């Protein structure tokens, strides 16, 4: 049954999820893949820089690496090698789903809350990971890093997700693990909620967060404890 969910006087219309580091414990695998690719190509260890690039799409990441390693940084070769190493690790070890990710998506569906993906990853990569984890079908819309012009922390990806959901940004809760994503969601006029992964939030980031939690399970508990749900106008008043 569709319900209106209110949290401290604010109505929650949609949940918009980042992916890497939030839904999947994938950032550590990316770091290992970058280190292996760097070793293979004989260039400085790019994996050591992941803490500065979390939330970047591939284009913005390449600009960062060119600034650090020089204009001759082999961006295409690095991307190919990194992808190959990531696949090898994920096929051998798997990519763990973060605690509470599936449960929060299921909880949203039970309440009739819209859900969208706003990931800096490329579409082919994101869809493959989500389908393999049997999570793709939970999303009503998805925006990928290779289909937007401006990467996080620009608000474009979150504004696009809200537009696809036909929902005002002010009614969206954005779930993020990285400072760039929090800044992006905040600039879009959403309610950013952070679940940190590799990078702890600084004071500037915390100032933009509505809340900060250790896991997505904590987000579920918070919504349950601090909100109330009522039937939407015109909906059935029977049991769920």
The number of E-state strands comes to 9
Report the CATH topology name of the largest domain.
Rossmann fold
Architecture of the largest domain, CATH level 2? 3-Layer(aba) Sandwich
**Could you report the average pLDDT, rounded to the nearest whole number?**
91
Largest sheet: 6 strands, parallel
Beginning-to-end CA distance, first to last residue: 6 Å
- SS-derived structural category: alpha/beta
State the helical fraction.
40-55%
Contiguous helical run count: 10
Number of domains: 2
The H-level CATH homologous superfamily of the largest domain, spelled out, is HAD superfamily/HAD-like
Shape: globular
Spatial strand arrangement across the major sheet: 5-4-3-6-7-8
Low-confidence stretches at least 5 residues in length (pLDDT < 50)? Answer: 235-240
Précis, in short:
With 240 residues, the chain is α/β, with parallel strands linked by helices.
Explained architecture:
The protein has about 240 residues and is an alpha/beta fold. The chain has two domains: about 5-25 and about 100-230, Rossmann fold (3-Layer(aba) Sandwich), CATH 3.40.50; about 25-95. Helix content is about 45%, strand content about 15%. The strands form two sheets. It has a six-stranded parallel sheet with strand order 5-4-3-6-7-8, sandwiched between helices. A three-stranded antiparallel sheet has the order 2-1-9. α5 (about 100-110) packs parallel to α10. The longest helix has 19 residues, at about 75-95. The chain is globular, with a radius of gyration of 18 Å. It starts with a strand and ends in a 9-residue tail after the last strand.
């Amino acid at each position: 049954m569709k319900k209106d969910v209110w949290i401290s006087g604010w109505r929650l219309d949609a949940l918009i999820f980042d992916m890497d580091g939030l839904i999947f414990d994938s950032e550590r695998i990316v770091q290992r893949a970058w280190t292996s690719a760097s070793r293979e190509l004989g260039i400085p260890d790019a994996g050591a820089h992941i803490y500065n690039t979390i939330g970047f799409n591939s284009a913005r990441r390449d600009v960062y690496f060119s600034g650090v390693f020089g204009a001759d940084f082999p961006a295409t070769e690095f991307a190919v090698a990194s992808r190959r190493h990531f696949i090898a690790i994920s096929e051998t070890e798997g990519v763990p789903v973060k605690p509470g990710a599936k449960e929060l998506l299921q909880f949203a569906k039970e309440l009739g809350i819209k859900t969208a993906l706003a990931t800096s990853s490329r579409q082919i990569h994101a869809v493959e990971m989500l389908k393999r984890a049997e999570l793709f079908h939970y999303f009503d819309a998805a925006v990928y890093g290779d289909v937007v012009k401006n990467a996080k922390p620009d608000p474009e990806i979150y504004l696009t997700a809200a537009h696809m959901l036909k929902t005002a940004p002010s009614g969206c809760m954005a779930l993020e693990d990285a400072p760039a994503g929090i800044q992006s969601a905040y600039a879009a006029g959403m309610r950013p909620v952070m679940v940190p992964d590799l990078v702890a939030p600084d004071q500037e980031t915390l100032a933009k967060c509505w809340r900060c939690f250790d896991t997505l399970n904590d987000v579920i508990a918070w919504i349950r404890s601090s909100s109330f749900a009522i039937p939407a106008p015109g909906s059935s008043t029977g049991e769920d």
